[in-house]
Design a protein that fits this description.
- The protein has about 260 residues and is α/β, with parallel strands linked by helices.
- About 30% of the residues lie in helices and about 30% in strands.
- It has nine helices and twelve strands.
- Strand 11 and strand 12 form a beta hairpin.
- Helix 4 packs across helix 5 (about 135-150).
- The longest helix has 16 residues, at about 135-150.
- About 40% of the residues are buried.
Length: about 260
């Protein structure tokens, strides 16, 4: 089971946003996507979410071309958290989370134990009756992540989760919660694609890592293999120093 991008390019307004990107997201793995501003990370998410169409190349879901799959069916297989979400209606936190069930007929089909489990995982239970527009940025982000999880929580394995900067606006404690959730989704048989700005977090959570610059792939593979000093310098324009921590993991520190 895979989401497959084969030679995908995206041109908008005469500008090349993505060029010849090929990627397979398999069930049971986490792929982290990193790169500088304007690298095409969110545009890649838009292609996978089918909110943008590739100018060339093909996308497929489990061997079926995207164009042959209806939006309704795709929404029961692929859940997407965009970089920005806009919701100005006075819904409660619980109501926002249950919006994730629309592809399955609405919130009435959401089992209470599942809703409670997801809210507990993201420390939202005490906020369930709060009005969404009154929340802090981090609380809104956790609510939106819960909505995405709710969409396919009971459809794993065989589903795919796409997150564009899910740890934005979150404190370090909640960032670690999200990293554990991403790993759990993959361990349960989902395919997970996650865009991150922090390459240390990206390397920590990804089985594989995709490094983009100016719409092109600079590297794709195991994080330690992709994030060489030369590639990081080429992508971000800063000199990295790679440190080996006591637990055996690698940490990047940047110096001018």
């Amino acid at each position: 089971m895979t989401i497959c991008l084969s030679g995908c390019s995206l041109v908008q307004g005469g500008k090349v946003i993505l060029q010849d990107v090929s990627l397979q997201l398999a069930a049971g793995e986490v792929i982290s996507v990193v790169g500088p501003n304007g690298a095409g990370k969110s545009s890649l998410v838009a292609l996978v979410a089918a909110t943008s169409q590739p100018s060339s190349g093909q996308l497929s879901l489990d061997g079926r071309p995207y164009g042959s799959i209806s939006l309704a069916e795709r929404a029961t297989r692929v859940a997407v958290l965009p970089q920005q979400t806009s919701l100005e209606f006075p819904f409660s936190v619980a109501e926002v989370i249950q919006l994730g069930r629309i592809p399955h007929g609405g919130g009435r089909h959401l089992q209470s134990p599942m809703l409670a489990e997801i809210m507990d995982r993201l420390a939202l239970h005490d906020l369930r009756n709060r009005i969404y527009t009154s929340l802090s940025g981090g609380e809104k982000q956790r609510t939106q992540i819960a909505r995405v999880l709710c969409q396919l929580w009971d459809r794993i394995p065989g589903s795919y989760f796409i997150f564009d900067e899910p740890t934005a606006a979150l404190d370090i404690g909640h960032q670690l919660v999200i990293l554990r959730l991403l790993r759990e989704l993959a361990d349960r048989g989902a395919g997970v694609l996650v865009v991150m700005h922090d390459i240390n977090l990206a390397a920590r959570c990804g089985d594989r890592l995709l490094l983009l610059k100016a719409g092109q792939v600079l590297g794709l593979g195991k994080p330690a293999e992709v994030l060489t000093a030369a590639r990081v310098t080429e992508a971000f324009g800063v000199m990295p120093q790679r440190l080996l921590l006591d637990d055996g993991s690698l940490q990047w520190v940047f110096v001018e």
